[in-house]
Structure formats: structure tokens, C-alpha cells
Design a protein that fits this description.
Structural class: mainly alpha
Shape: elongated
Radius of gyration: 35 Å
Number of helices: 3
Order of helices and strands: HHH
Number of strands: 0
Length: about 90
């Protein structure tokens, strides 16, 4: 009975060791993927910042799309006091 127990414990130990080793490898792979995705995320954020600059958009609108910046207008608001007093 003692020999069988030792063999079973050795098999259990090897299974646990192998399972732990596989989990460690999987964690390392996931850490590498996380680092790669974080780098890609930073690069994409930099691209978004570069592409969404106002001066770049203005230049594309004027050169490629032939758009023009409108002349600013002044809006005058006239309040008719007669309408306000009749209510």
C-alpha cells in the first residue's frame, strides 16, 4: 500500500508541476501580447492626435476639397418692447 501511495503522490506532483508550468507559459504569452497591444494603442493614439490637428484639417479642406473659411458675420438682435409690454 505504501508503494502505491508514493507512486500516486509522484504522479500527482508531476501533474501539478506540469500544469503550473503550462499556466506560467500562458501568463508569459499574455504579458507579451499585452505589451504589444499597449504599444499599438500608443501608436494609434499618436496617429489620432496627429491626424486630428486643426491646422491639418484646415489645410486639407482648403487644398483638396476647395473649401473656404467663411467671413465672420455680426448678428444684431432687436427687441421689440411693444410685444413684451402687451403680454
Amino acid at each position: 500500500m505504501g508503494f502505491i501511495s508514493v507512486v500516486l503522490l509522484a504522479v500527482l506532483y508531476l501533474w501539478i508541476f506540469n500544469h503550473t508550468n503550462l499556466m506560467f507559459r500562458e501568463v508569459e504569452d499574455l504579458k507579451r501580447k499585452e505589451a504589444m497591444l499597449a504599444t499599438q494603442n500608443r501608436m494609434i493614439s499618436m496617429d489620432i492626435n496627429r491626424l486630428s490637428r486643426a491646422d491639418r484639417i484646415t489645410e486639407i479642406a482648403s487644398t483638396q476639397l476647395e473649401m473656404v473659411t467663411p467671413i465672420p458675420e455680426t448678428i444684431a438682435v432687436i427687441i421689440n418692447t411693444e410685444i413684451l409690454t402687451n403680454k
